[in-house]
Amino acid sequence: IFKFLGAISVDLGQDRIKPYLPTILTPLYRELNSNYAEQDPTLKNLSQEIIELLKKLVGLEAFSLAFSSVQKQANQKRAMRKKQKALQTVANPDIAARRKLKRHKNKAETRKRKIESLRPMYKAKRHRSHALKDLAMVE
User: Residue ranges of the U3 small nucleolar RNA-associated protein 20 C-terminal domain (predicted)?
Assistant: First the structure.
């Protein structure tokens, strides 16, 4: 997709690409700012190359305006998701409690796995199933 975006932008030229610049920059920006553990470095390099190509093609000023708008939009979306999550915690405390229990359970499992990798002879006790009944609220 990134190669396609680069080819289209070169094909359209400087004047015809400007209205589509934020649309093209959105996935490139998302790839550059992602911090996934299993991220492909070739995708990151490719997106950086295409951004440099676009910068040369449309000029620094037009590129900067489009890039800052994409950046602002991404930050607004991130803040909106964070706000929605906080509101959901207040509105639905039972769902939030279940999510918290699940998170703590996963953290304990991760800790056990880490201990087992550091000390192979030690075997931590584990629950047999990860069914919904394990996550149920206990009164």
Answer: 1-116
Residue-level pLDDT at 117: 85
Whole-number pLDDT of residue 120: 76
The span from the CA of 12 to the CA of 93, in Å, is 52
d(CA 1, CA 61): 25
Q: What is the pTM of this model?
A: 0.67
